[in-house]
Amino acid sequence: MKIEAITIREIRMPLVHFFETSFGRIYNRRILLVTAQCDGVNGWGECVAGEDPFYSSEWIETAWATIKAYLAPAILGRELASGRDCPALMARMRGHRMAKAAIENALWDAEARQKNVPLWKLLGGFRREIQCGVSIGIQDSIEHLLDKIDVEAAAGYQRIKLKVKPGWDVKVLERVRARWSEIVLSCDANSAYTLDQVEHLREFDQFNLLMIEQPLWNDDIYYHARLQRELRSSICLDESIRHARDAAAAVETGACRIINVKVGRVGGFTEARKIHDACLRNNIPVWCGGMLESGIGRAHNIALSTLENFRLPGDVSASKRYWKEDIIEPEVEVTSQGTIGIRDNAGTGYRVREELIEKLTARQETLRADSK
Ligand code: OSB
Ligand code: MG
């Protein structure tokens, strides 16, 4: 397929409810979408970079500038057999994985549409439904949090993940476990702790957590290995895993027993599949993380989650938990069993609502091969 044009666009979407982590609270998402025009077919990709460089060093402005100056020029006008060929063309540019993923995934999307096959099959998936959990942010009070858990547990979600930080952790977990002794529960610290808090982190062991996600520094593997030896609970790494080599190092050193795969964080479907395969060989379960995606990124997460080793419920949940109106049709819905059924249509199986996207667009720019 020939890459004829790349359109980058920023849309703005207000969240139904604010989302707070150890690094801050957000009410709105500024989302960078990529459209790749290949032989007249459009593929869509979503850049999961945030509005600020808080989760990772990338943010929407670095992604925009990097795509425009480097990533789009590296692929425009090229003839590619598959989305798989994209990473090699962008490898010269270091980092900027979320920006790269938006482009690569748009090409996989276009490829699936062109070949008239479902994206999940193209990626090598086989599941006909995926297991869903929810990630619940830090709230204004424990009462607010308990109300939220009530809603999500009643909706059927298979796992509840709570955001924690010093001052919003042990007491919160205690209250939650007192009310729901049986629910599958995990927590995510987004790097809010340090190794000298090991005694405090050991208190988490009493809550029978499925995992503790990213307790220590965002770029660390070594000290997580030290911490894992001190805890009964399993550590899951998110931020620290940038590529398959990080995953291999984490497994080899015993830094975690579970890995959260986010296709944006690792630079696209190709690298996500490598991590998946490496974890499968080492009997390390993975699950699909979320970045408060619009329907486009959400549909891609669903396709990825059909791979064999996505054995734990992901953070991929219903559109309506985030948006009044999503930019795909139908919206992503979750069954009362906490699953999402996999669609058999070509591409993601969801239609992109271009007319709604136009209305939400704050800026857009089309890059072409001849304008290099
Ligand atoms: O660490 O998993 C995370 C959202 C934004 C940034 C980082 C994270 C998250 C989530 C939300 O936990 C997952 C979702 O519901 O999309
Ligand atoms: Mg996380």
Description:
With 372 residues, the protein is an alpha/beta fold. The protein folds into 2 domains: 3-116 and 351-371, Enolase-like, N-terminal domain (Enolase-like, domain 1), CATH 3.30.390.10; 121-341, TIM Barrel. Helix content is 33%, strand content 22%. It is built from 12 helices and 15 strands. The strands form 4 sheets. A 7-stranded parallel β-sheet has the order 5-6-7-8-9-10-11. Strands 3-2-1-15 form a 4-stranded antiparallel β-sheet, sandwiched between helices. A two-stranded antiparallel ribbon has the order 4-13. The radius of gyration is 20 Å and the shape is globular. The protein starts with a strand and ends with a strand. The mean pLDDT is 97. Bound molecules: 2-succinylbenzoate and magnesium ion (MG). The site of magnesium ion has 7 residues, from loops.
